[in-house]
Amino acid sequence: MKAFFLIFILLTFSACKTKTESITHHPVKLMKTECPKEGECSILLLENKQLVLKTEETTGNIYPEVTNGSSLVVVFSYSENAPKGIVDGNYTETIHFEIPKEFSELNKKNYELADVQLLYGKQCFCEDAGYYKVTKGKLIANKKDANIYLNLTFQIDGINSKVYHIIETIELN
Fold first, then answer.
1. Three-state DSSP class for 169?
2. pTM of the model
C-alpha cells in the first residue's frame, strides 16, 4: 500500500508542467565595469518587457517586477558567495532600469532617472538590505549599429554600495 502511494505521488509531480517564459538574453560584448574582485558581475537585456515597481503591503518596501511590455529592461548584478561555513553570508547588488526599445540617445540626470525607473537593490543579511529608487546620478545610453552603450554613475544617501559606476556595451543580435 505504501508503494502505491509513493508511486501515485511521484506520478502526480511528474505530470505537473512548469510554465517557462522566453527571455531574450543579449551577451555583454565588453565588460568595462570595474567589478569588485570579491565577486562576479553580469548584465541582462530583456526585450519586450517593462519594469513595474511594486510595494510590499505589510512593510511598504518597494521591489521590481519584470512583466511583458514594449520596452527593454536592463538588469545588472554583482554577487559575492558566502565564505564556507557562513550561513546567510551571500551578498548581491542589482540595478534595474527600463529604456525604450527604439531610441538613439538617452541622457538622464538625478530626478530624471525616475523616467527610466532606476532601482538599486541590496540583498544581504544587513540592515540596509532592500530596494531604493535612485535620484542621484547620471545615465547615458546610446544605441548605434547593433550595440547599446551604457554609462551609469549613481549614489544613494546612507547606503554603502560596492558598485556605483557601470560602463557596458551590449551587443544586439
1. strand
2. 0.80
- Residue 133 grid cell: 529608487
CA dihedral of residues 40, 45, 50, 55 (deg, nearest 10): 0
Please count the structural domains in the chain: 1
Q: Residue type for 43, please?
A: I
Residue 171 pLDDT class (50, 70, 90 cuts): confident
User: Is 1 domain-assigned?
Assistant: no
Round the average pLDDT of the chain to a whole number and report it.
Answer: 83
Domain assignment present for residue 91? The answer is yes
DSSP E strand boundaries for 25-163: 28-31, 40-55, 62-80, 91-100, 105-109, 119-123, 130-133, 136-144, 147-155
b/e map of 79-117 (b: 16 or more CB within 10 Å)? bbeeeeeeeeeebebbbbbbbeeeeeebebeeeebeebb
